[in-house]
Design a protein that fits this description.
The complex is a heterodimer.
Chain A: H1 2-12, H2 14-51, E1 56-60, H3 75-83, E2 88-103, E3 106-115, E4 123-128, E5 136-139, H4 141-147, E6 154-162, E7 167-182, E8 191-195, H5 196-203, E9 213-218, H6 224-234, E10 238-242, H7 243-253, H8 255-286, H9 288-296, H10 301-338, H11 355-381, H12 385-394
Parallel strand pairs in A: 3-8, 5-7
Antiparallel strand pairs in A: 1-9, 1-10, 2-3, 2-9, 4-7, 5-8, 6-7
Chain B: E1 3-16, E2 19-32, E3 36-40, H1 47-54, E4 62-67, E5 70-71, H2 77-87, E6 88-91, H3 103-113, H4 118-131, H5 147-158, E7 165-169, H6 177-192, E8 197-200, H7 204-209, E9 212-217, E10 220-226
Parallel strand pairs in B: 3-8, 3-9, 6-7, 7-8
Antiparallel strand pairs in B: 1-2, 1-4, 4-5, 9-10
The chains are: A alpha+beta, B alpha/beta.
């Protein structure tokens, strides 16, 4: 019976109810997006780092991986020390650089990574194969498109290019043997990878035995933190960071994003709350006489409050899934915009959908909506019956 | 014959600015079970205030009200509500039916509140609608019913939980003469079937139909006459 009354009350002013539900859905969508944004980047970044199975990353002292052009010298002997550790099962050195390829429309410049193909963790081969010899390389779709080349073609590239003199340095002919999707590169960034020794030779004497970073894979069950400390003690010229430390650094750098997300999320919650409070208050004020009659014929105040709370709860139940869909669509759109930011890895999601976080956010909104209905409901159910009926009769 | 209503020295004052205005100034009377009393008097004489106090929807400033042997003038809200549900039936001048509910559902509302479920509730509601002559209109919403029909539904609702006392506030006030006469007959039948009724009215026909007429003026009872 209370359900019938609650449903009828919502249906009495359909347009108003629909508008309120849409308002709450928008509010829910915004809240969901902010929750996805606040934790999304961190979790997405964690996924990127963990996905390749490297627990530790080494970079030149005081830097983060690829934060600067700094390199680690005498890297081969350092890497040998790391490989000798029992808990270490693989070490993947990476040397960063640029690949300049002259073409009919000028020189195309791309990022290039020198790697050991058997242990690399920077890209996935989505077509063709890994480089198997010194003169083979892989490239991403962006580079191939820019050059008008395909897997199986050959290119003539250089590690150095003087734009004023238009002269190339460290030239080499390379065969493209695979199509790669780079994990840490930006959406429009052109990229290539080749054996590290090949890139060192192209870069010349200055790159001999140098690396930009190295990634270390540990045996299952190994204590990441104690290995980090041990390697750092072994290699004083190197910064060793674990995934947790990297995430902490990410957290620090992105803290303002999170603050923004929390503030906007709280605003959405308040907006949703106020929206439902306003609607319920208006609706209840219209039914003050009806409520007084219900009280007069013996319906308990708590049951009237329950009926009104059911109304706000029903609105929330309808609005929450709508907000979920709207939030996911919006997040996808915003993600595509933010992913175009320079330097942002294409595979990094700013808005990461996590069912538990979404459930928490929408439950919070639903709860706030239900709470929003309680006060006006309680107030109307507590009005003096005789006075209210007299005023209704006069009105 | 047992006493259903026992009112003693009832005073009800309302604050009006810094003054206090007395709507009732010490009213005492009894109503026996099965009685049919009409309270009459000019507007503002306190008859509706008295009815509200009998219906436990208002509290007196002083004095006592007992209904069916229970003191009700100081009942806490929840107990007063529960008391109204089972012991009092209200009939209002403006019917005050739930517009969202059908005629039958309106009658079912107090039955649902006492926990009567499903078929038993529907059966009881239908029996009451049959009693007031509206069984065929069970699915109609109040807006689809005439004033007289709405008042019949309101009477069926008032009778739902077999109350000790039915209180009616100007039940013919919104009805035309013919429908009002039908309502007077219905009240008479109700009383003949054993229901105790107290009705507040300006309607002389309705007052004449009662077994007893209580006259009020300026917050006091000035006359109490039994029908011959």
């Amino acid at each position: 019976m209370l359900f019938t009354l609650a449903a009828a009350s919502l249906m009495r002013h359909r347009t108003r109810t629909l508008l309120a539900i849409l308002g709450v859905a928008v509010s829910a969508a915004m809240l969901l997006d902010m929750v996805m944004l606040s934790s999304g980047m961190r979790e997405s970044f964690r996924g990127l780092l963990q996905g390749q199975g490297f627990a530790l990353r080494l970079s030149p002292k005081g830097t983060l991986p690829f934060d600067t052009d700094a390199t680690i010298r005498d890297a081969d002997s350092l890497l040998a020390l790391i490989r000798a550790r029992p808990a270490v099962i693989a070490v993947s050195p990476v040397l960063g650089g640029q690949l300049h390829v002259p073409g009919s429309r000028g020189v195309v410049t791309s990022s290039v990574l020198g790697i050991i193909p058997s242990v690399e963790g920077d890209y996935e081969v989505v077509g063709g194969r890994q480089p198997a010899s010194a003169n083979e390389m892989v490239a991403n779709r962006q580079l191939l498109d820019a050059l008008g080349l395909h897997v199986g073609d050959t290119l003539h590239g250089a590690a150095g290019y003087d734009a004023q003199l238009r002269s190339l340095a460290g030239e080499r002919t390379l065969r493209i043997v695979g199509l790669a999707r780079f994990i840490y590169m930006a959406t429009d960034q052109k990229g290539a990878a080749m054996p590290i020794e090949t890139l060192r030779r192209m870069q010349g004497e200055s790159a001999r035995a140098r690396i930009s970073i190295a990634m270390v894979r540990l045996a299952p069950g190994a204590n990441v933190d104690s290995e980090r400390v041990a390697i750092a003690a072994l290699l004083p010229r190197v910064t060793v960071i674990s995934i947790a430390a990297a995430l902490d650094q990410v957290d620090q750098r992105l803290s303002y994003f999170r603050q923004l997300a929390v503030i906007l999320g709280a605003v959405s919650l308040v907006v949703g709350f106020l929206l439902v409070t306003t609607l319920v208050t208006v609706s209840v004020n219209e039914r003050i006489g009806e409520i007084a009659v219900m009280r007069a014929i013996g319906v308990q105040s708590s049951r009237i409050v329950l009926q009104i709370v059911m109304e706000s709860g029903a609105m929330m139940l309808v609005a929450a899934p709508m907000g979920l869909v709207l939030g996911l669509i919006t997040a996808r759109y915003l993600n595509s915009i933010l992913a175009r930011f320079p330097g942002v890895p294409a595979r990094l999601d700013f808005f990461l959908f996590q069912p538990s976080a979404a459930l928490t956010a929408l439950s919070l909104l639903a709860l706030s909506g239900v709470l929003a209905g309680i006060y006006p409901a309680w107030r109307s159910a507590s009005l003096p019956i005789a006075t209210t009926l007299r005023q209704e009769a006069v009105g | 014959m047992s006493t259903i209503v026992e009112v003693r020295d009832l005073v009800r004052e309302y604050p009006m600015g810094e003054e206090r205005v007395a709507a009732l100034r010490g009213v005492s009377f009894d109503v026996d079970a099965g009685d049919y009393a009409a309270i009459v008097g000019p507007s503002g004489c306190g008859k509706s205030t008295l009815l509200n106090l009998l219906g436990v929807i208002d509290r007196p400033t002083s004095g006592t009200v007992s209904i069916a042997g229970e003191r009700v003038d100081r009942l806490p809200d929840a107990r007063a509500t529960a008391f109204r549900l089972t012991r009092i039936g209200f009939v209002f001048q403006r019917f005050y039916l739930m517009q969202a509910l059908s005629a039958r559902e309106n009658v079912e509302l107090p039955l649902a509140e006492v926990g009567l479920k499903g078929a038993a509730r529907r059966e009881r509601a239908m029996a009451l609608l049959e009693y007031v002559g509206l069984a065929k209109r069970e699915r109609h919403r109040p807006s689809q019913l005439s004033g007289g029909e709405q008042q019949r539904v309101a009477i069926a609702r008032a009778l739902a939980n077999s109350p000790a006392l039915v209180l009616a506030d100007e039940p013919t006030g919104e009805l035309d003469a013919r429908t009002g006469a039908e309502m007077i007959d219905l009240f008479a039948r109700l009383n003949a079937d054993g229901t105790t009724i107290v009705v507040v009215t300006h309607d002389e026909e309705l007052a004449r139909a009662a077994r007893r007429v209580i006259h009020m003026r300026d917050g006091v009872i000035v006359g109490d006459e039994r029908a011959r």
